[in-house]
Amino acid sequence: MRTEQITAKALKQVGDDRYKLSLIVAKRAEALANGAEVLLNIDTTKMKFADIALLEVAEGKIGFEAFVEEK
């Protein structure tokens, strides 16, 4: 799948909110860089953390709720 298609699919998952999507991808990419487990069943060895995070959002594996801190 092409990056444009993945991005469009991921945007739909977050209600077309680009700010929310960028925040989720940034936070998830940071978590992956720090050793978090990949939630996808594909070979991600040659993928960048941001690309993995974007694909996880597109596939519905992770969403905004995962990053909202309880007060």
Give me the secondary-structure category: mainly alpha
For the residues shown, what is the average pLDDT?
Answer: 90
What is the 3D shape? globular
Termini Cα gap: 38 Å
How many strands in all? Answer: 0
- What's the main sheet like? none
Task: Tell me the helix content.
Answer: 40-55%
Tally of helical segments: 3
Approximate strand percentage: under 5%
The gyration radius over C-alpha positions equals: 12 Å
**SSE ordering:** HHH
Count structural domains.
Answer: 1
The residue ranges in which pLDDT falls below 50 over 5 or more consecutive positions are none
Overview of the structural elements:
Belongs to the RNA polymerase subunit omega family. Promotes RNA polymerase assembly. Latches the N- and C-terminal regions of the beta' subunit thereby facilitating its interaction with the beta and alpha subunits. Its EC number is 2.7.7.6. GO terms for molecular function: DNA binding; DNA-directed RNA polymerase activity. The chain is mainly α and 71 residues long. The chain has one domain. 52% of the residues lie in helices and 0% in strands. The chain has three helices and no strands. The protein has helices spanning 3-13, 18-33, 49-58. Helix 1 (3-13) packs across helix 3 (49-58) and helix 2 packs across helix 3 (49-58). The longest helix has 16 residues, at 18-33. The chain is globular, with a radius of gyration of 12 Å. 21% of the residues are buried. The model has no long low-confidence stretch (mean pLDDT 90).
